[in-house]
Design goal:
Order of helices and strands: EHHEHEHHEHEHEHHEEHHHEEHEEEH
Bound molecules: pyridoxal-5'-phosphate
Distance between the termini: 33 Å
Oligomer: single chain
CATH superfamily of the largest domain: Type I PLP-dependent aspartate aminotransferase-like (Major domain)
Number of helices: 14
Number of strands: 13
Helix content: 40-55%
Number of domains: 2
Shape: globular
Mean pLDDT: 97
Strand order of the largest sheet: 2-8-7-6-5-3-4
């Protein structure tokens, strides 16, 4: 078994990339902002642009402090390592990114256990948290952290409402647990719900944003929380090799993204709704109604697996991702236009019938 990424097929160019919002390319204007960036040594605290980004994200999320990281995965892993000790237990949805998509990091790096909670569309309730609370005894693992994912990726890009977050956080805090929010697409939720990012993050003790999803930057995520916590997180960042040097160039792209690419996420949501409506008309395909920019669908009725469907789209220059035998995902983002959505639907219709 090889774990290397498979080299892409470069012989047929991808024209309509619905694979992931991580496939966005930095725009010319974003690259200009990168060229203009003032830089220093991020690891040593002398990069002014990284400080500017961290201050901006801390203010946006209503937290005291923030730290720049190379990826969202590192934000989650550093946060878990900082919150927990080996043997501790985390409560998270069974489909959470930390559970299935971070190479076992919580176990390998922090020695923690994750107890998977259930709930439709990647969202669990305060009642299920209460149910999972163990009596404090020398037999039970210390329960330290409740983790929520906003939006819930495998839940179909579903948004936790501020009320649902409040209810879960209240139970967590009542039992001395902290709340960590994986905010990879938090700003999609803010735009879709019409709620300030700081209101979404209000009861999360720690929270991060990814800049490489719909925001369109080439690299970076920012983890925010209390000053003491961010100080302790810095040691883990250093330990894992996440400290950077002239990070300002990448921080400038992230600042550009915050200034220009947030409100436009509404377009991605409109395009996702149009894509879902179009796909729902294709015989054999059933579509989960999207709340944001992720459109999950089932190919069972076409007689094809999701991988076969994806394989047939690829020669037409269209890519989607596969998330289960019959479950596929198509994702909208700033490099996909409304016209391309229409074209993609017509190609899908053609392919589904063959
Ligand atoms: C993409 C993603 C991550 C990881 O972010 P990277 O920047 O790719 O490391 C974590 N959580 C969720 C929900 C994601 O979608």
């Amino acid at each position: 078994m090889s774990f290397e990424p498979q080299r892409a097929d470069f012989s047929v160019p991808v024209r309509i990339d619905l694979y992931s919002d991580t496939h966005t390319r930095p725009s010319r204007a974003m690259k200009e902002a990168m060229l203009q960036a003032e830089m220093g040594d991020e690891q040593g605290g002398s990069d002014p642009t990284v400080w500017a980004l961290c201050d901006k994200v801390a203010a946006l999320l209503g937290k005291e402090a923030a730290v720049f990281m190379p990826s969202g995965t590192m934000c989650n892993q550093v946060a878990i390592a900082t919150h927990c000790r080996p043997g501790d237990e985390i409560l998270a949805h069974e489909d959470a990114h930390i559970q299935g998509s971070e190479a076992g990091g919580p176990g390998a790096i922090s020695g923690v256990m994750i107890r998977g909670l259930q709930g439709p569309r990647g969202i669990f309730t305060a009642a299920s948290v209460r149910e999972a609370i163990r009596p404090v005894s020398r037999y039970s693992p210390p329960q330290k952290l409740v983790e929520v994912e906003q939006t819930a990726n495998k839940g179909g890009g579903a948004c936790w409402s501020v009320r649902q977050l409040h209810e879960v956080a209240e139970v967590a805090h009542e039992h001395g647990m902290q709340v960590h929010m994986d905010g990879a697409r938090l700003l999609n939720a803010a735009v879709a719900l019409g709620v300030a990012a700081s209101d979404i993050a209000a009861e999360a003790d720690t929270v991060w944003l990814d800049f490489t999803k719909g925001l369109g930057a080439p690299l970076g995520a920012v983890l925010a929380g209390p000053t003491d916590f961010i100080g302790a997180a810095w040691r883990w960042k250093q330990r894992l090799g996440g400290s950077m040097r002239q990070g300002g160039m990448n921080a400038a792209a992230c600042i550009y993204a915050l200034d220009h690419n947030v409100d436009r996420l509404a377009e991605d949501h409109t395009n996702a709704a149009a894509l879902a409506r179009g796909m729902a008309q294709i015989p054999g395909i059933t579509v989960e109604t999207p709340e944001t920019n992720l459109v999950f669908f089932d190919t069972t009725g076409t007689g094809m697996t999701a991988a076969q469907f994806a394989g047939k789209l690829r020669p037409h220059g269209v890519t989607i991702s596969v998330s289960g035998t019959y479950r596929g995902r198509a994702c909208t983002h700033l490099d996909v236009s409304a016209a391309q959505i229409e074209e993609a639907v017509s190609i899908m219709r053609q392919v589904a019938a063959t």
